[in-house]
């Protein structure tokens, strides 16, 4: 299908990989009223206890890893064809954050993004 669960314990490794290879990404943090987005390369990944701090583009995303109960890889159709999004859910099954590619990125960036997400093991 168009979605599959992935191992949420790999989130720090996903961000560290994005940082090491310079692959730009769009990260979004959801609330009941708004989705705040930050896009660009990952500059810094730091883990402080259960908190994962990620400097992404011009913003910072802080993820409480102990609150992430599941991750789902979802595929949709984008400007370059199949484009995957990693969705993070809390204990109430609310989507609290997303990682994806938005807009018309280069073909190389799109392929690298899809390859990385396809390599993530199932939960």
Structure description:
There is one protein chain. It is built from 2 helices and 9 strands. The strands form 2 sheets. Strands 1-7-8-9-2-3 form a 6-stranded antiparallel sheet, with helices on one face. By secondary structure, the chain is α+β, with helices and mostly antiparallel strands. Strand 5 (51-56) and strand 6 form a beta hairpin. The protein is globular. The two termini are 16 Å apart.
List keywords for this structure.
single chain; 123 residues; alpha+beta; six-stranded antiparallel beta sheet; 2 helices; 9 strands; 48% strand; globular
Helix content range of the residues, please? 10-25%
Q: What would you call the structural class?
A: alpha+beta
Proportion of beta-strand residues: over 45%
Oligomer: single chain
Average pLDDT number? 91
Count of helix runs: 2
Number of separate strands: 9
Q: What summary fits the major beta sheet?
A: 6 strands, antiparallel
Radius of gyration: 13 Å
The backbone outline, from C-alpha atoms, is globular
| N-to-C CA distance | 16 Å
Topology record:
Blueprint: E1 3-6, H1 11-21, E2 25-30, E3 35-40, E4 42-48, E5 51-56, E6 59-64, E7 70-78, E8 81-89, E9 95-100, H2 107-118
Antiparallel strand pairs: 1-7, 2-3, 2-9, 4-5, 5-6, 7-8, 8-9
